[in-house]
Each structure stands twice: as C-alpha cells, then as structure tokens.
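Q: Hi! Curious about what Peroxidase looks like structurally. Here's the sequence.
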Amino acid sequence: MKWDSNTTLEKEDIQGLLVRGYSKLPYASYHLLRFNDLKDAKSYLHESITQVTKASTSPDDMAVHLAFTYDGLKYLSLPEITLQSFLRQFKEGMTEKHRSFVLGDEHANAPELWEWGGPNNPPVHALLMLYTKDKSTLEAVQSQHHTLFGHHHIEEVRMLATDTLPDLKEHFGFRDGVSQPYVGGFSNKQPGENEDILPPGEFVLGYKNWYGQYPDSPIMETESDADDLLPSYPNNLKVKDFGMNGSYLVFRQLSQDVYCFWKYMKEQAPAASHTQKEAVKLASKMVGRWPSGAPLVKAPHADDVQYANHNDFNYWKEDFNGLKCPIGAHIRRTNPRDSLLTEKTDLESKEMVLKHRILRRGRTYGTPLAESMKTDDLMNAEDDGKERGLHFICFVGDLIRQFEFIQNAWVKFHKFGGLYEDSDPLIGTHYQKDGHVTDTFTVPEEPVRKRYKNMPQFTAVKGGAYFFFPGIKALTYLSRP
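A: Let's find out. The predicted structure is below.
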C-alpha cells in the first residue's frame, strides 16, 4: 500500500520515541520496574505522565517514556475484555516455550540463563526510559524517579545503563543504525530514490498498515471509559480503541563477546597473509558492511568512507549471487531488500520484505574493548572480561509478522537463502547438536565458495520482554484510580 499523504498523525498523543531516536540525547538509562501496590502504582503514573515526551516535540535536554508488560497491565486492573484483546504473542510473553524455539532462544540464549525477564527472575511490570543531553541531567532525572519509586513502593528490578560509542559504532567496531525504514508522516526528510515509504500503521496502532487495514488493537467497552478519554475504534463506534497511537516494543539485551569475535576472524585468515587485513575483510563479509558503514554492494573490495552513510541500494541486479555481500551476511538476512530467492522478481521480493520491517531504537552499553574502536586495536586487545553489548529495542504493529518473522525465518533459519548450516553470523544461535549444525558461514566465491565452520557464539541474550507502548491518552487512563 502506498502512503496516503493526507493521513495526519496525532503526534500530541504519540510518545516521542516512536518518531525519533534522540540523537541529540546521547545519555540514556532503562529502568525495569515492579509494582507492589495498585494505588501507589497509579499515583506514580499520574505524577510521571507530565514528563512523558510527546512526538509533537523535539527535545533538546530530556525525554521520558513508559511501557508495560502484559503482567503490568493486568496489575493495573485493565478490564478483562481489554486484556484479552492484546496480541497473543504479547499475552504469552517472550519466554513462552514455543516462542523460545521460534526466536532461537535456546542453548546459550535460553531464558533460564537470563539475568532479567526469564522464568528464574523477578517479574517486570513496567519499563521507564530516560534520555538526556548530558550525564548530570540523567543523574538528576534518575534521582527524581528513585525518590518516586520509594514513595510509591515500586521496586527497581534492574537498571540498564547505556554508553555511546565513537562514530555511531557498535562494540564489534562497525557503524550501526544506518538502515531504518522511511515512515510516512514521521518527518519532513525526503526518502532516497530506491527507498519506499511505509504507512505509519506498520508501527503505530490506529493507522492503516501495508495491507491498507487497521492493525489489531486492544479494545475497551465504552462504559469502562467513564471519563471519555479514549477514541472510538476504527469502523466500530461501539467500543473504544485503547491501543490508538501506541505500539508494541521489543526489548532484548544482547551481550557481545568482542574478544572472541576478533580472535575467530584472525584464526580464519589464510597462512602467510596480512592477518589483520583479512580478518577485517571476513568480519565485514559477516556484517555486510565495512567498519565505516559502507555496504559491500557498493564497496566490495575495500572500505570506502564515501559510502559510510549509504543505504540506497538493492541486491537483485547488483549482487544476486552474493559475490559482493554474502547471502548469509547479517544485514542481508535482517533486511533482504529485493533479494528473497523465494520470489520470482525483484519487485515481488521487495514487496514481501517491506511487510516485515521493524523500527529500531536500540543503544549500546558497556565500555569498548579498545577505546579508539579501531578494528586493529580491537583485534589486538586482551580480553578484559567486562560486560558489553546492545540493548536491542524495536517497535512493531504486529509482533509475529514483523519481529518474530525476521527472527525465525531470516535470523535463526540455517537454510536461509539456499544455505545449509548457516544461522546469522552475528546474532544467530551457533551450535552442533542432534545432527543439527548452525555454526557455519558461507562466502560465495568463484570458482568455489568458502565455508567457515565452528563459529563460536558471538552474542548472547541476557534478558528480554515484550512491552506495550501506549499513547498519552491510554497512559492517562492507566493512571486513573
């Protein structure tokens, strides 16, 4: 479906993180909360709502956001009909047994090993997200909310800090966040020549999605909204739309073993070669971009900074067989663009991929293994044993069609794109068990392909949960006694 430019987003009722990633607010922290008294929980929300940042503003100093797990919404006494109308995946949660299989949360990623959000951890009811311009402002806002936690008997299950790395890189040393979908109505920025405009209903409830339909949204009986806060449900004036201007938020804490990553790359370099150069080349093949961010499709032989921010490219005509960017590379698996081999044409492939896009809003955490973040320094650094990684955060309008599909069919699936034993080289689950092998990476080359085997687990899930990210009116409803 094409974006209808006549659609107006109700940005006064949308939490701002949906629309912008806050590049001007580099300091952030995430607070996982547990309620212990219903009256106190609602009172805390009532006091906090005035701070919540709306999408209609672009803050220069601070932004505050709130989201809730299904257990949290139950605790806040939402009507049963509303609770039952949320997506099944949200109600069951990220750690439901079948879902762990779907997401690849097995072996090193098993929820039983998680530090939060798993079956052996305290329950999480809410997520408080703080973004600020500097460290002192962040500490002041944190202190304010910690005081409120004490007054309202709210337990901080865990505080997740963030750290901004140089040159917008992630811990393996590669520029991150280059590829984001263009969403109609979010900004005045013009899309690239090959960039499609996605309708806002792919990420924000209450608006039409790719199929020209309103996404499933939690409903509420009219009599339950005594103060008439909520809008009517699209095409059904008999019920209220609790989900309007909200979204589903996926949160996964991914640790990164940077020392192990570069150790493996160096070990795979051919004998008598320039080991570090070959190590960077192989790592870039796995990522699909060079450390600068330049895509291999545009710079197949060496890094080229002129393409560092380049995202306007495709694969079908430029690199159908993966001789430039391997078919199993991370960026090609998580966003195949126009190169799904299950489709007959590049147009069909592109349209299929557009149905499964996600909107990322993650941040890195932990200090870098090498302060410079240069690949040579990273691969020569000693293992310091410190924890570092990525707080993966994304928004979707449909958990199963967007996030879970990507995770299962493209990231986890070891036969993606005609491969055989290859899970995603960066975030896939790598193992050999019961005849199943998922720890191989294949590089198409002429005359013969090259296969790298016995890949260690470079990342591991440390915690995660599904949250609902309500609109401002729904937040206000939740705070009412």
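A: A fun detail: The two ends are 41 Å apart (CA to CA).
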